[in-house]
DNA sequence: AACGCGTGCAACCGCCTTATT
DNA sequence: TAATAAGGCGGTTGCACGCGT
């Protein structure tokens, strides 16, 4: 039986107050992102460590870019989703200042609908056969541009993930020839505030990608190298 | 003005992965 | 090598807000 991540008794839940935010910011400014489990107590917060981490990463971090997503960002999210499925953290890693939660929310609230509206199944990035195939397929400006996003089966972490990835990669690879001006060089960008944590993340991403390449047996795009 | 409905987003939950002992 | 702790991730929920009726 797994222990809960924190003592549920006596911890606040729900929306963060300004005072709590300030305590968290002050503490991290003074001590850095240390051990999340002990941070709440040290910072004088009645919160679960996970909750503190989430609040910091998704909202309080100084390098977070807030506001609307640009068309370029939209395009990139869609293409990366075609390649990677619901790996929001990896996708967000390609969008400086954006968090996985933000990307995930944006996908679920905007982009999914957008894809559906142009006749593309957001789960597999294939054209919905019941709908007429549009001539122009740019998703951020559907009426003007073109590209095809056929791709993977249902994004799933457990079943057929490699197949999905290779399938998606192959499709996008095929299309990539027609991707005018889109930067699909997926080298991990290390933020200026890079730390050992970021380096670890990068290494982890590299590892995962290599797994795909090695396990697949099918030539796929080599990402994050 | 009041109500219902849909949407967007912050936050939580539970599982998985990684590190440590 | 196994057990445990901690971090990280994706799915989901719940609430606030805006809009239409």
Task: Report a brief summary of the structure.
With 225 residues, the chain is mainly alpha-helical. The protein is 47% helix and 2% strand. The protein has two domains: 1-62, Arc Repressor Mutant, subunit A (Orthogonal Bundle); 71-216, no CATH class.
Descriptive overview:
With 225 residues, the chain is mostly helical. The protein has 8 helices and 2 strands; from the N terminus they run H-H-H-H-H-H-E-E-H-H. Strands 1-2 form a two-stranded antiparallel ribbon. Helix 4 (71-84) packs across helix 7 and helix 7 crosses helix 8. The chain starts with 17 loop residues before the first helix and ends in a 9-residue tail after the last helix. The structure holds a DNA duplex (21 and 21 nucleotides).
Topology:
Blueprint: H1 18-31, H2 39-43, H3 49-60, H4 71-84, H5 88-93, H6 100-117, E1 120-121, E2 126-127, H7 161-176, H8 196-216
Antiparallel strand pairs: 1-2
Helix pairs in contact: 4-7, 7-8
The structure holds a DNA duplex (21 and 21 nucleotides).
